[in-house]
Amino acid sequence: MMWLLGAYLLLLQRDIVGGLVILAAPMTDGEALLSFKRGAISSPDQKNGVLKSWNQSSAENPCFAHWEGISCDFSLPKELGNLSNLEVMALSQNSFSGAIPRSIGNCRSLSKLDLSANRLSGVIPPELGHLSKLQVLYLFANNLLGNIPASLGNCSDLQTLSFGKNNLTGKIPPEAFDEDMRNLQKVYLYSNHFSGELPATIFHLPSLQVLDLSNNSFTGYIPADIQNLTRLILLQLGWNNLSWLVPTFLGNCSNLIVIELYRNRFAGEIPSQLGQLESFQRLALSSNHLVGSIPEQIYNATSLQLLQLSNNRIGGKLSRVISSMHNLESLYLTNMSLTGSIPADIRNLSKLVALDLSRNNLQGIIPNCFLCLPSLGELYLFDNQLEDSIPSDISESSNLVKLFLHLNRLSGIIPASVGKVYKGVLSDGTRVAVKVVNPESPAFENFEHELHILGKVKHRNLVRVLGYFSNTEKKAFIFELMANGSLEHQLHECNVSLENRMGIANCLVYLHCEFDGRQLSTLLHIHGHHRLRCTRGGIRREVKLKDGCLQPWNSFDGNVEWELRSPQALQLQFRLEC
After folding, report:
1. Which residue stretches of 321-388 are H helix?
2. 577: buried, middle or exposed (CB in 10 Å: 19+, 13-18, 0-12)?
3. pLDDT single digits (tens) 37-87
4. Is this prediction's pTM over 0.70?
5. Domain ranges (residues) in the chain
6. Any idea which fold 416-480 has?
7. What fold characterizes domain 88-219?
C-alpha cells in the first residue's frame, strides 16, 4: 500500500489541484499525506490553499473526511476471482462500492458469500450461477439494480438467498428457482421493486421454510401450490398489490408460525381454517378489504402472540373466548366496525403489551381491572362510544406509557393516581387549583404535549391554565379553582331528599340525551353560588348551595338556568325547559 501512496504523492507534486486517486488508506497513510503537506507548503500564506482540508483531526480516515484532491476507490478488485480455494468470503458492513466483479464466479469452492450492507451497485453477475457449492448468498442492503439472474437456478446446494433492500426490478424469472434447488430453505427478497405475479416455481421448493417477498409490487393471487410447502414456517407477503381471497388452504401449511399479508387488496372473510395452525404466532392482515367478523377459530388459536386486523371492514362483537389467547402480546383492531362492549375477560390476557381498539363502535364501560394488566404498555381506546368513568385502578398499570381515551363519552373524575389536586393561593390572593402529576403515570411523560394543547385552546367556557411548574422530578398545572366541589359530592354526602335527587337526575338526562346534541358529564363542579334549577309543569324545582350543601325550594317560573362546570372544567351557560 505504501509504495502505491508514494507513487501517487509524486503525481500530487506535479498537479495538486488535478486530484489524487488512491485505494482506501489506513491511518499511517493519512499521516504520510500530512507529512507531505508540511513539506509542500513553503510559506504561511499557503496554509489556506488547496490543502487546507488536510488536517490532523481527520487523518485517521482521509477518504471520508473529504480531503480536497483525494478520492478513494472502494470497489472490489477483480483479482478476487483468483482465490479458487476460498470457501467463505465475508465482507459485510464495509463501504465497498461499484459493481460485483464477474470474476467472482471463478471462486468455485465458495460455500458462503456475504457482501451485505455495503454500497455495491450494478447488476447481480450471472457468473454467480457457476458457484455450484454455494450454500449461503447474502447481498442485502446494497444498491443493486436489474433482476435476479436465471443462472442462480444452477446453485443446487443453495440454502439461504437474501437480496432484500436493493433496487431490483422486473418479474422474477422462473428459472431462478429451479426445481433442482431442493435444499433452498430461506428466500428474502423484501424491499425491492419486483412486479408481476408471484413466481410459480418458488412454491415447488420442498425445503422452503421462510419466504419474504414483502414491500414489492407483486400482483395477482396466492397460488394453491403454496400448500405444497409443508415445511413453511414464515410467509411474509405484506405491502404488495395482491388480491382475491386470503386462501383457505393456508391452513394446510401445518408448520406456519407467521402469516403477514397486510397492505394488499385481499377481500372476503378471514378463513376459519387459519385457527387450525397449532404453532401459529403472528397473523397480520391489516389494511385490506376484508369483511365479516373474526372467526371463533381465530380466538381458539391459543399460541397467537400478535393479531393485527386493523383498517378492514370487519365487524361484529369481540368474543369472550378471547381470554383463551393467553399468549397474546399485541392486539391491533383499530379502524374497523366492531360493536358491542369490551369483554371483561380480556383482563386475563396477562402477557398483553399493546392493545388498540380505537376507531370502532364499541359501547359500554371500560372493564374493571382492565388497566391493571401487568405487561400493558400501550392502550388505545379512542374514538368509540365508551361511557362511564375511567377505572380507578389505572395506577396499577405500572408499565403503561401510552393511554389514548379521547373521543368517547367518558365521565367522572380522573383517577387520583394520575395526580393529586391541591388548593393554593397566588401572591395576589387568587385561589387556584394545583394539579401535581404523578411521576409514575403516563401523564408525566406527556406533560409538555398536554400543556401545549391546553395553551392553544382559548374559550370563555373553559377553565384557564394560569401557570405550570416543570422539572425532571415534579410537574404541575395551575388552574382556576372550582371552590364548591362536585355535584356528586353534594348529592351523596349532603342531606338531599330522594325526590330532589331524582329531579336533578332528570335534568341531567335531558342534557345528555335531548338538549341540542350536547354532552355533559354526570359529575359537575359548581362554581361560586350559581344555582341548579329545573322546571316541570310550571313549578320550578331549584337547587342552590347553602352551607356547603344543595338545598331545594319551589318557585313559579317557566325557565331553567344553568351555570355549571364539568370534571374537565367545562362551563356551560344556557337556558332550557325540562
Report:
1. none
2. exposed
3. 777 766 555 555 667 777 766 666 656 556 777 767 678 999 999 999 999
4. no
5. 2-73, 88-219, 416-480, 487-576
6. Phosphorylase Kinase; domain 1 (3.30.200)
7. 3.80.10
